[in-house]
Design brief:
By secondary structure, the protein is of the alpha+beta class. The protein is built from 8 helices and 17 strands. Helix 2 packs antiparallel against helix 3, helix 2 runs antiparallel to helix 5 and helix 4 runs antiparallel to helix 5. It is elongated, with a radius of gyration of 26 Å.
Length: 377
Amino acid sequence: MVYDEIKLLRQSEKSTVQLVKEQGSERLFVRKILQGRHQVYAVLRELTHPYLPMVYEVTFEGGSTIVVEEYIEGRTAGSAALTEKQCLVIVRELCDALIFLHGQGIIHRDIKPSNIMIAQDGHIRLIDFDAARMPKENSEQDTVQLGTRGYAPPEQYGFSQTDERADIYALGVTVKQLLGGNAGKRRYQRVLSKCTNLDLDKSYRSVRQVKKAFSVVWDWRAGIACAAAVVLAAVILWNLLPDSMLSQDKPLSGSTELTVLPAPEGLYWTMKQIGEEKYYFAAISNWDDYEEEDNFDAYVYNEDGEYVMNNTIEMEFMIENGWPGVRIRPEFVNEFGKSYRFAIQVLSSRPNEYRSSLPVEPCPGEDYLSPPLRIPE
């Protein structure tokens, strides 16, 4: 397509951004002329998401990348006067956008209020992927350090190759700025401080975890009102039920069973050095299916299927200590030439929503057990 330039929006040594109009129509677009090859825009051209702008054309000419993308009419989140409730809506939609991007292997690397547009439909668009990258295998450090200082974590400025936790750090800084004085409220402090924890082992490992953490905040006020209503309804119902029904042990007709938590998947043994000691850990591959308040009860069995020991640890405690799973005390798995296997039961932190996963004691079948850990002779 052929375009006429309407307005110069921004210009720097590395980029020129123009508002353009397609010849023969009234459609407006944003055209970017960027130094270097920005392959991420070619990937974005093939993707669609409600909270991302559409990318229509990507051309590589010489040493430049020319991008034509959707023009978003609206205002930035940084320039808008937002209520606390509106801020939380933005956080939810921003998390959804980042979960999608990270699922495609794209790290934005420049999350900040001015890169979040509030479109006329009331929803956000995450813009400006000029600093975005797709992590490279066998690369320990970023080739070029980009992003906005104050929003980017230290590793984005040359300490190591950035991953999705760089976006999590910037997400925390951005949300804190959008919330303003409300960020000091206790229900936000824990989530925001964990987003920006410079010890990456103690930070959130995925945006999905951040969204889950904020979901507790989103439901906070509604939860109080709902709880009060439930208590009142229970008192009324208790006084109305006949004694014959109150004495029955079985549930009332039509009652709904709670959903069982997802079963642990991909069980495996791993080892971690803590101080001068090495410890074995019982780990799983689907940690993201659970809340940080959920508890994991690991049962260890010997090669004859006999119970050896068990240990219960809260997920939040594991993350805060940088543990890859449930720690198994070494004195219980130390017989040379012997092998040990484990199974895990997840104990729900939300008894009114989910039931704990299936019990794993006594020793369950093969489908529930980890591969064997053999202690060398």
